[in-house]
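Pair request: fold both.
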Amino acid sequence: MFTSDAPPSRPRSLDVRFGDIAPILPALIDVLAARPSFIYERTSTRTRQIEKVYVGFGEIESTPCSTDAFADLRASIANAHSSPRATTAVLAFVSYEALRPTSLQRESQPLVPSYAILQPTLLLELDYRHRTARLSGDYETAIESVRAALLAPAAKNREKINIDPGIDTLKRWAIRPSKSEFLRAAAEVQKAIRARQDLVGVCLSVELESQSDIDSLGSYLVLREINPSTCMFFVEREQFSLWGATSLPILQARGGRIVVETDGATRRVEPGAADQWIPTHKELEEYNLVVAALRDDLDGVVVPTSLAFTTEREQRTYFNLRHLFAEAVGDLAEGVDAVAALKRLTPHGAAAGYHKAAALDLIDQFDVAPRGPYSGIIGIFDRNGDADAACVIRSTWKAGTTIRTRAGAKIVADSDPVAEYEESILKTLPLRRTVEHILRRAPTSVAS
């Protein structure tokens, strides 16, 4: 696949109109005789319209140069910058444990990588704002095939995905910790919060596990339709796949300037409700702690005089939950690039707590299993230094035939632990509905 004698030296623009990526994918898979190794989609938080999509095919084999995910990421970006055959960008996935190597290492999740840096053989970039498409990598033999695939679905009508909201989606999942274990952990966290000056809140989480050999790409395409979010992603490697629709971007870096976000309080939205959300004291406490964590993380990352919060307490709704968001912009400090900024910003405060060091220690104590992908990183890194990365929440991963999803809630002094447990389970609903939909329909995949 994708062979040529003369390696290309620059990306190739395709003069072609294109639509949504979902109906395009089957045509791409058909003409290239391969499934994508990754997909990364970025949506505007304001218009909810897709802005950019990256689709990678194939993978250049590489040997990790260290056990440091960020060092390997830098090496991969450098290779993309220096090699004429390399694509213009790489995708990185970094698990929570790779972000926090000092965390207690309980039993590992078989087949789940600590991190993965994917350098595709062929990269398709679709820019929906400027309506441009381009290929990079070893594309010479693929240009006309990709152009035809982009045009193929133009006249086709997409089948609407209808999911029965009454389906019991919990029955096939094993949940840990149990509700009683979660409540005990939350009580201990609240006890620590009241006793310590360095602790405001901790994000505790619940993991759901099931056994099924579902089609991961088909699951991703269902999820992105029923729960469109700011960052949507799919990664597939041998025996491991990861897909999600996260509302929590970590950073966008472009030309030495970054945009960062954080997500505070969460409230359930009843179907058809048009009520006004006036945050409670407890919800504001959750929001304030993630903003404080973000400010701390940005210290030394951006030029202090350039830091400005452009959005505060902005309400955004995704699926059945409403959130409070904050957004800030700033100029990267001297000697700091997107990779260094990302390393400082993770594990993200919205998935950890505040003060972060104390919160992470309690997560080590009360997490009953490794977090794996949950609260890790997924992102695209351009060879010119630009980046777009998100926190891995609202995601599902499959290792062999084991599928898992995970979600959490912030425990503060005023939290009701029962409500926080129920919120954690609720956050997995679109993921569970996606899996149930795939299992109940005809057992066919997008392509093999």
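--- second member of the pair ---
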Amino acid sequence: MKRARFVEGAKLDPQRYYRTPFDVIRDRRLTNGDRLEILGAWERGLGNPGADEQATERLDQLKRVREEIERTNETAPPEQGLETAKQQR
């Protein structure tokens, strides 16, 4: 499966591709932007988590993973463009 098709599918139905939100963060094929979009889709798919204890737990997991990604984005050095990286070789 091509990466773009996989990412789009994961954004539409994250639970089809991942068992837990922590699996999203471990997937090396994804950028942090992709991860955040997938987690957002997962949150929207939960509906009303207050009515279901399992959904509430999943929402807490999603929030923890989102915070970890955002913290990583704050501490990561800026990305270099492909051309700049090639020139430095």
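Observation on the second member. Residues 11 and 45 are 11 Å apart (CA to CA).
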